[in-house]
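Lab meeting, item 3. Inverse folding demo.
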């Protein structure tokens, strides 16, 4: 604060606003104040209100409120009244007491240019308000006046509030009219929006300070120039020097940075690399053979249908591996082959296996890695994949048609469920989750199968992250992988992990990437 002879120094134009606020003597919305003073909103807030706040005479606070705004239809009723009032006025012309409904409908159409729908909406409202009654005693419907001087309804009172305002939006509605607001909202006469409003009010000191206690100045000097320092004029102009607020925040810098999902993907990759895993990649366009058949999923399984899977038209079919592998998979599906299983008991089709699709899981990529295992391969082998998958699903806040999966396998001798638990628990602990639990599950290509969940401190809840298990012999035998060599496998959701870390309630933010969210998201 700047004091001259123990007086607080403010600009003349700001003092006028101070006097206006003293007269109002209650909190007022900043845009309403801007309209009353006929001062641009930005100039008011960054100039007068900011300066008065800096010297302790005023303050403002932000508040989220529900604002209702008139629709185009509602604006047309501001002068003429709601449809029911207009229809009632026509009905009561020339002291008329009753009328045939259908004849009256045509009269209203000609005089008010109302559609039939709008006419019957008005009639319905008039009956509800008990302005009229109806009867079919004469074999046709008639309406009778029931109230010759109806008072304004609550809906009409809400409309009147807009007449008294310079804006077509309102944030302050009397409590007694709240129900009426819901009613006209259902009639699509208003829209509802959440907005941040700034309420301006004076501090106790601002309410009681007088002109005699202030030093009013005309011009405010924002900084002392080198010329002022040279000629010494800064001493005379010191009372007009603008306050310097050392606590004011600087401007937000919209700096370039990695997308939050990219940051999490890189973190996942770093964790797996630190655990001794090798990263692998695969094509997103895949044969059904690798996506389904190699995973011992029957060809009549519902997940293979068009409503769950994206099939390609061009090319529609692909190539299969060596005949020996095809024959092994065929026998496994039909009768279990030499796996000790009874199989699915149907006739396996090579044509179905050749169909081309967008992969539904990255397990197709790890299966292709299994196909390269030979007797000379060095075990144990640990690989992982973080990549896109596609499923024909309706999109909402928790589902996407395209998303990412964290897939991994460990190949080695005498591996057990304990080894699988150890790998997953270690992964999630390195990702920052202290509590990790596993429980039995079911998946067609692993036995035993297991689900994994983590506890999120941010959300205060347990969340399921994915499935895992040990590949069945029906999956591994085709590639020459037999006991004691076993394959631990898992498929985990990346977006679920990202939602927890970024506190996102809507998974679509990760891909639609609203600018406001990107700017706030941490590096």
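The presenter then showed the designed sequence:
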């Amino acid at each position: 604060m700047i004091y001259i002879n123990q007086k607080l120094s403010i600009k003349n134009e700001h003092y006028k606003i101070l006097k206006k606020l003293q007269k109002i003597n209650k909190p007022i919305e900043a845009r309403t104040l801007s309209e009353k003073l006929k001062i641009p909103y930005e100039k008011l807030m960054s100039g007068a209100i900011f300066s008065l706040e800096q010297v302790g005479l005023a303050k403002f606070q932000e508040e989220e409120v529900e604002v209702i705004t008139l629709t185009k239809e509602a604006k047309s009723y501001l002068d003429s009244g709601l449809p029911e009032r207009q229809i009632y006025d026509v009905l009561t012309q020339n002291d008329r007491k009753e009328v045939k409904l259908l004849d009256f409908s045509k009269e209203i159409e000609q005089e008010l240019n109302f559609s039939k729908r709008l006419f019957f909406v008005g009639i319905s409202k008039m009956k509800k308000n008990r302005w009229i009654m109806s009867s079919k005693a004469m074999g046709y419907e008639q309406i009778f006046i029931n109230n010759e001087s109806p008072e304004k309804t609550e809906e009409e009172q809400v409309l009147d509030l807009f007449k008294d305002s310079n804006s077509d939006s309102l944030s302050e509605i009397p409590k007694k009219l709240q129900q009426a607001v819901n009613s006209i909202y259902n009639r699509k006469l208003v829209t509802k929006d959440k907005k941040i409003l700034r309420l301006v009010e004076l501090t106790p000191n601002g309410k009681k300070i007088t002109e005699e206690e202030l030093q009013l100045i005309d011009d405010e000097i924002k900084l002392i120039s080198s010329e002022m320092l040279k000629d010494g004029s800064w001493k005379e102009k010191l009372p007009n020097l603008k306050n310097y607020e050392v606590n004011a925040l600087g401007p937000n810098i919209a700096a370039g940075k990695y997308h939050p999902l990219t940051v999490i993907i890189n973190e996942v990759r770093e964790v797996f690399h630190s655990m001794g895993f090798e990263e692998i990649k695969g094509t997103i366009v895949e044969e059904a053979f690798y996506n389904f058949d190699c995973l011992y999923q029957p060809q009549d399984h519902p997940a293979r249908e068009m409503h769950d899977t994206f099939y390609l038209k061009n090319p529609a079919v692909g190539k299969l591996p060596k005949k020996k592998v095809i024959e092994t998979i065929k026998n496994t599906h039909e009768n279990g082959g030499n796996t000790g299983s009874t199989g699915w008991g149907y006739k396996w089709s090579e044509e179905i296996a050749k169909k081309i699709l967008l992969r539904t899981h990255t397990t197709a990529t790890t299966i292709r890695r299994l196909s390269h295992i030979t007797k000379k391969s060095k075990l144990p082998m640990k690989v992982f994949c973080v990549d896109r998958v596609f499923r024909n699903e309706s999109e909402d806040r928790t589902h996407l048609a395209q998303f990412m999966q964290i897939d991994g396998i460990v190949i080695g001798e005498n591996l057990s469920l304990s080894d699988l638990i150890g790998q997953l628990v270690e992964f999630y602990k390195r990702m920052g989750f202290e509590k990790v639990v596993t429980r039995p599950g079911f998946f067609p290509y692993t036995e035993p199968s297991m689900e994994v969940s983590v506890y999120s401190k941010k959300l205060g809840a347990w969340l399921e992250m994915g499935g895992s298990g040990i590949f069945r012999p029906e999956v591994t035998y085709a590639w020459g992988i037999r006991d004691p060599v076993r394959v631990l496998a898992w498929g985990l959701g990346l977006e679920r992990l990202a939602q927890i870390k970024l506190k996102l309630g809507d998974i679509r933010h990760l891909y639609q990437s609203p600018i406001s969210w990107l700017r706030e998201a941490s590096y």
